Amino acid sequence: MIDKHQIAANFSKAASTYDEYAFVQREIGDRLFERLDLMKIKPECIVDIGCGTGWFTRKLKKRFSRARVCGVDIAPGMLTQAKNHNGWFGKCQYELADMDRLPFSDQSVDLLFSNLSLQWSFDLKKTMTEFSRVLKPSGLLLFSTLGPDTLQELKLAFSRVDQRQHVNDFLDMHHVGDAMLSSGLYQPVMDREALTFEYETVKGILKDLKGIGANSLNGGRSTGLMSKGQWQSLVKAYDAIKASQSSYPVTYEALFGHAWGAQASATVASDTYPISLS
User: Which family does it belong to (predicted)?
Assistant: First the structure.
């Protein structure tokens, strides 16, 4: 099971460097953001789930200037960075919260936006049920996450070094879709894009992953530093994977999804404490 306290600690530790290394996250987030062009919505209340340093929270406020926009994250360090970028007028609101226990009233949110946070959910159905609870019947859930082909080259290279798990397992698109359906979300849609980024060195790949706080959290993971021999074996294994290419390929399987709020009038019981988005 994923340790949420460890997730919060890892991302808080990386908060000060996150924006420097998060170009993949911004690329996928930009593609998610573009999908808003296809949606005919005029949201009054927007929540950015897993907002990190608030990059897309601010973009959402800029696009929907009249809306109340709140960024939510589990990592205190990330929210500190987000608030530092908020400006004198504090246009965006930020709250420390778990995406499985959102501090919002039933059917109170018009748009839930989530870029690359769902892969940190240990119970997709529970998370989607919480999303369904806070969405208005006409509200929109728009999200991205990562599929199982993500970091496949790095995973293969590590498998030739030892039998420990160095790379997280990621979500199957069909499991995400099933979780949306079972939570009562309306008309769920999923699609995927495979994105390949190129690096000059293996060290650069690992530096970027460490820089955003994306440490391996799955069971059986390696917890120690690699020896010089293991490092050399890793580079040799990755050299074999890239073959005649001049750079090291890194694949991200981006999963995109959207759904609408549950059409039924019944709401899901919650033990959270609502906050005011004003």
Answer: Belongs to the methyltransferase superfamily.
Q: Which residue has the tokens 């496949």?
A: 152
Under 8 Å between Cβ of 113 and 60: yes
∠ at Cα 123 (121, 125), nearest 5°? Answer: 115
**Region class of 13: left (phi > 0), else alpha (psi between -120 and 50), else beta:** alpha
More confident residue, 264 or 168: 168
Domain boundaries, the chain: 4-150+169-197+252-260
| 112 close to 47: Cβ distance less than 8 angstroms | yes
Element (H, E) at 113: strand 109-115
Coil, strand or helix at 186: strand
Is pLDDT at 266 greater than 80 in this prediction? no
What is the mean pLDDT of the segment spanning 184-207? 95
Please tell me the predicted confidence (pLDDT) of residue 226: 73
At 153, which helix (H) or strand (E)? Answer: helix 152-159
The closest alpha carbon to 142, from 41, 214, 264, belongs to 41
| pTM reported for the whole predicted model | 0.89
Q: Which residues contact 197 (CB under 8 A, 6 or more apart)?
A: 24, 249, 250, 252
Residue 162 confidence (pLDDT): 87
51 to each of 47, 81, 111, 219, 228, how far by Cα in Å?
9, 11, 14, 26, 37
Distances from the Cα of 228 to the Cαs of 7, 194, 232, in angstroms? Answer: 28, 32, 6
**Residue 26: which of 264, 193, 230, 212 has the closest Cα?**
212
Question: Domain 4-150+169-197+252-260: which CATH class?
Answer: alpha beta
Question: Tens digits of per-residue pLDDT, 167-177?
Answer: 888 999 999 99
